[in-house]
Specification:
The protein is about 0% helix and about 60% strand. The protein is mostly beta strands and about 120 residues long. The N and C termini lie far apart (about 40 Å).
Length: about 120
């Protein structure tokens, strides 16, 4: 019913930038919060950033001042602009959306994950 499609990951040198995108497709009535989590090898999945339907944002302390989350409600898309990347930002990044289906059910949906590698 709903699919979240991510793009924009890749390999970048320390200090570089990447922009991740995540578009939600399907029988969507409206979307509440959208956001990004990441999981590095051997570590638990952790919150990176969240943006609500009113564009209120929350960031992990480790990315404040370097990452910016935004969304385009008309396109059901969330973005993560990542600047000044560090090797410790290396992880698989997952987007999520807390949304309501046309049928009326609320649920949290996840993307398939996109790899971000920061290395020289």
């Amino acid at each position: 019913q709903v699919q979240l499609v991510e793009s924009g990951g890749g390999l970048v040198q320390p200090g570089g930038s990447l922009r991740l995108s995540c578009a939600a497709h399907g029988s969507i009535f409206n979307i509440n919060a959208m956001g990004w989590y990441r999981q590095a090898p051997g570590k638990q999945r952790e919150l990176v950033a969240i943006i609500t339907s009113s564009s209120s944002t929350t960031y992990a302390d480790s990315v404040k001042g370097r990452f910016t989350i935004s969304r385009d409600n008309a396109k059901n898309t969330v973005y993560l602009q990542m600047n000044s990347l560090k090797p410790e930002d290396t992880a698989v990044y997952y987007c999520y959306a807390d949304l309501r289906l046309i049928a009326g059910d609320w649920g949290v949906y996840w993307g398939q994950g996109t790899q971000v590698t920061v290395s020289s």
